[in-house]
Amino acid sequence: xxxxxxxxxxxxxxxxxxxxxxxxxxxxxxxxxxxxxxxxxxxxxxxxxxxxxxxxxxxxxxxxxxxxxxxxxxxxxxxxxxxxxxxxxxxxxxxxxxxxxxxxxxxxxxxxxxxxxxxxxxxxxxxxxxxxxxxxxxxxxxxxxxxxxxxxxxxxxxxxxxxxxxxxxxxxxxxxxxxxxxxxxxxxxxxxxxxxxxxxxxxxxxxxxxxxxxxxxxxxxxxxxxxxxxxxxxxxxxxxxxxxxxxxxxxxxxxxxxxxxxxxxxxxxxxxxxxxxxxxxxxxxxxxxxxxxxxxxxxxxxxxxxxxxxxxxxxxxxxxxxxxxxxxxxxxxxxxxxxxxxxxxxxxxxx
Length: 351
Known about the structure:
By secondary structure, the chain is an alpha+beta fold.
């Protein structure tokens, strides 16, 4: 079988190299949302051909971007009186690295040279970074996006005590290619200090000379939609106020400020929904920033021994029946305490 497979692969490669008439590149149509952070591309000439399941997947990208934006812009930036900006690369990198939704695929450094100004400069720059064809429509959002990145860069580069001076932005690319939904994320960033004189903050993005040279960095990720926002598509409007959405935003914020975040208590893979724990059963507390060293777990002020303790999971086995629900408190080694609610310990059925 292997020789036959090798022969077939070689023949296919030969056909592709010879521009065989049976091997053709599909044409794609694309459109951006108003901010330019979500791009939808399809090989279909009629958008109604996109099936409902693919639409739901792309809708989830919108939900994730909304949650990420809310988490970043509501989190104080260390050493500053201001919150993070969505154009702050440090914040973007923490969400990308910690959310578990991004798989890094490629990276490249791009040296960009232009003699254009204002809106044309912004449009040409984004077209080059996103690998769009020449003359790709108006890209009305381009000037506002590049201007916002430039203003964030000037702000960071002027702060003498900051160690994080990178600015950037993220674009989610939702592709429907021959019936297959594919989602990727493009992250573009630059060091604001090395590019300080390239941008001038104001209503228009201008260059400091007739010829602009920039060095930018581009990372491309495969994006996997977060499965723990469940059944959001059934009522997309209401999820913004749902407990699942709020919990997800809190989780993303914990990635930014290293705060304690607890998802819940699990028995095996089932989340405990009531206030009763069973004597002698083993449970898992799942969260983020729980600490690499063991802290303390107490029920009604009495310590419960833990079986294991890591930064994302704590295992414990309660013993001794209690009659009245009482506070179950987790205290990390760093003395950060979290009251997880009132629980009681009930007798096991086999005891």
